[in-house]
Amino acid sequence: MEGLGVLEEMGELTRRGEAFALATVVWRQGPSSSQAGSRAIITADGELHGWIGGACAEPAVIREAKQVMAEGTARLLLLGTPEQFGAAVPEGMTVVPISCQSEGALEVYIEPVLPAPHLVIAGDSPMARTLASLARALGWRTDLISGRDFTAEAADGRSMVVVATQGHGDEEVLECAAAARPAYLGLVGSRQRGATVLGYLADRGVPPDQLDRVRVPAGLDLGSTTHQEIAVAILAELVQLRASGALAGMRTGTRDRAGETAAALPAGPASAGIAPDPVCGMAVSAASSRPVRYGGTDYYFCCAGCRQAFGQDPDAYVKKETRC
Questions:
Q1: pLDDT digit string (tens) for 273-294?
Q2: Which of 38, 157, 247, 274 is the S-S candidate for 25 at Cβ 3.0 to 4.6 Å?
Q3: Inter-axis angle of helices 304-312 and 314-323, nearest 10
């Protein structure tokens, strides 16, 4: 996949609401199989679609892309041996040491593309319409559904659901919403009304772990307010919870690793499909490397030379890993 194919895949992932990272080669030092402008998509589960370089670069880019998605902040990578760059590394870049036999180097920009927050509002009151309007102004994907049309299929584990039916079928809508196990579930109403609704659902056999997730009343407690202010209070709570990372299944960027040198991979068995070459330290895709088993542990290698060096004196490299 390359060129327009990468762009089409980006559009498809965006439509499905899936997070991914876009890696773009912005500089290369030959010899290298990549070219400036080469692009690849890295999905949340670590699949790479496109081309940013060969076996030397891919595992490191996949590993860094996963961190970019988790943190929500882009980063610029320099992939090569530290000696190639010396003191010339600009501030704000991340150096990822790789020991590629071609002695090439790459500069790769990785940016996260996270799905817009998904808010589902069940109800047709003035407050519900105001909340929908405010959420859309933030760029959130917002669905305003009447209570009678709401089903559990309207939301999933990454959605935020606000039940604003306000006495018109609260129990039925809340039961459907709870079954979807959204990241957030709030009921608009007083605490007394909420206790009545939750008690009714408990008697109907709705599992306690689903009912415990319901926030009632939804939104920050601002006291006696207008319906417009209630909408603001609900949206403010959702923004606060997302920013703090309190909503399971939803990611926001909060950390900045500018200028940080990438940490070494843990020694030993492959982690998430990527393992360190015990000889040169390069990140290696376990799926594309035949392992050598020694001392009950599988070791992976970037090339035949490293495999041969390990085979001649494995204890030297195992001990080196242990010291690290």
A1: 677 878 776 667 676 667 888 8
A2: 38
A3: 100
